[in-house]
Amino acid sequence: MEDILALILIFGGGAAVAIAFSPIGRAIAERIRGRAAGADGLRAELAEHREALSEDLQALRHEVSELAERLDFAERLLAKGRDAQRVGPGA
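Above: the chain's sequence. Below: its structure in token form.
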């Protein structure tokens, strides 16, 4: 049992050290520290994307409100035409 534990410790420790000194290990360490390469550029890009989405959302809201007004107008015209047909001329 102790032999297996020793083998796991040796090979597991060696693998952990190899990963830690590899570029992947360094990237993970930088990410944990919060100093990822290009983090400022990424944040700026995300802010621009968010602003563009916000503008698009405002434009869509404006278009939906215009469409609602047009729909209300069309419904009033249709209702007006039906009311005129119901009453009709007197006898």
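Residues 55 and 77 are 33 Å apart (CA to CA).
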